[in-house]
Amino acid sequence: MSRTPTPNIAEIISETICEQEKTDAIYLYGSRSKGTERADSDWDIAVLFSDYMEDLLERTARPQLLESKLESLLPDHDISIVDLREVPVPLQWNIIQGIKLYDRGIPVVRRMENAIISAWEKDYER
């Protein structure tokens, strides 16, 4: 069961990510999206970036740089960010079951979600 996350923190996270990177969608997943978090739970965030970085090092560093930026703005919170395109299908499935904090409202978001659902059904739901 999804719920609405703490508005101020979720808004700061979404706004900061969108200010720093071209973004199509942002998801909150894990315990905070389910309402099962503890006081020390981290913020699990997945980002569907608008552009694909060809360079592996840059692609890998991008979520880490966003984490650093957000943790400097929100020092009392641990924040974990992943690139939705770069994680395995089971984690992608978990992510899209969470709370969408931001959606640019373009077809690529729906296509990505549909591709994840198809991959999940094909390879994992038997």
TrEMBL record:
User: Known Pfam families for this protein?
Assistant: Polbeta
What transmembrane ranges does the database entry give? Answer: none
The record places domain Polymerase beta nucleotidyltransferase at 13-104
Q: Which Gene3D superfamilies match?
A: Beta Polymerase, domain 2
Q: What residue range is the signal peptide?
A: none
Question: Would you tell me the protein name for this molecule?
Answer: DNA polymerase beta domain-containing protein
Species whose genome carries this gene: Endozoicomonas montiporae CL-33
